[in-house]
Design goal:
Elongation Factor Tu (Ef-tu), domain 3, single chain, 2 domains
């Protein structure tokens, strides 16, 4: 056998010894842990049995205590109900006592009042008789006055009926005239009519737009001047066409303003020249 073989045999023998020693140690440790496990398991089982017994005892005590509490609560509720009933009865009795005292005071005061009232009524009766005689005389005079007033009222009613008939007739006429004025777009406000009577200020402008009627004649004319220049609704303005190459200006017609803005106005043609038609660019003026 070579040296290497001998060394391997020695190594195997050593390893076998070590393995045997390790196996013995593991077996000893295993036995010790099993013993401890059985001991701890027995202690745990005993503790669980003690806990179950304590829990059952606590449940029984709780049930007994809850019953005692419920019984005590019922007794307290019964006592409170009885106390409330007695309190209500006491309040009712006190109320009756107060009402009886009030009635007694009222009857006493009423008796005193009746006695005083009887004397007062006797005195008042005498005074009333004298007052009745005075009132009767005044009543007779009032009756005579009423008859006179009724006669006057009848006369006034006759006059009122006449005035009412005249007023109704005037209303009918006014309504008719307002309808006519509205149809022809006449102004009915006295203040505005008075302003329309005022002559327009001296101004000049141009025709901006011309609207024609069905016969192709100018009907409405918009101009370049308005309220800022002192014009108001109702003013009348002449329309002229300036002559060219030394020719004289031509009169084209007259418009009356129906709508006035700050810097423009619209008027209806109330007079048209026979030898010309108002066109855009013609002049308007109040200076003629």
């Amino acid at each position: 056998m070579s040296f290497v073989g001998k060394m391997l045999v020695v190594v195997l023998v050593v390893l076998s010894v070590l393995f045997m020693a390790l196996s013995g140690g593991v077996l000893a440790v295993h036995n010790n842990w099993r013993t401890k496990h059985d001991t701890v398991l027995g202690q745990l089982k005993g503790a669980q049995e003690d806990f179950a017994a304590a829990q059952a005892n606590a449940t029984a005590i709780k049930q007994t205590s809850q019953k005692e509490v419920d019984d005590a609560k019922k007794s307290a509720d019964t006592a409170n109900a009885a106390l409330a009933t007695q309190t209500d009865e006491l309040v009712a009795l006190q109320k009756q006592v107060n009402e009886l005292q009030l009635q007694m005071q009222t009857q006493t005061a009423l008796a005193e009042t009746n006695s005083k009232e009887s004397d007062f009524r006797n005195q008042e009766s005498l005074k009333q008789r004298a007052a009745n005689r005075t009132l009767q005389a005044a009543l007779d005079q009032s009756a005579a006055d009423v008859r006179q007033l009724e006669d006057d009222k009848f006369g006034l009613q006759v006059e009122f009926d006449k005035l009412k008939a005249a007023y109704n007739e005037a209303q009918v006429r006014t309504t008719y005239l307002e309808g006519v004025a509205k149809k022809y777009k006449w102004e009915t406000d006295p203040h505005k009519v008075a302003r329309m009577e005022t002559p327009p200020p001296p101004v000049e402008g141009l025709v901006k737009v011309v609207t024609k009627d069905k016969t192709n004649r100018p009907k409405f004319v918009e101009i370049s001047i308005g309220a800022d220049d002192g014009l108001i609704k109702g003013h009348k303005i002449d329309v002229v066409r300036l002559g060219l190459d030394g020719k004289d200006s031509q009169y084209m017609g007259k418009i009356q303003l129906t709508d006035v803005g700050p810097d423009h106005a619209v008027g209806i043609v109330i007079e048209a020249a026979k030898n010309g038609i108002i066109e855009v660019g013609d002049n308007v003026t109040t200076k003629l």
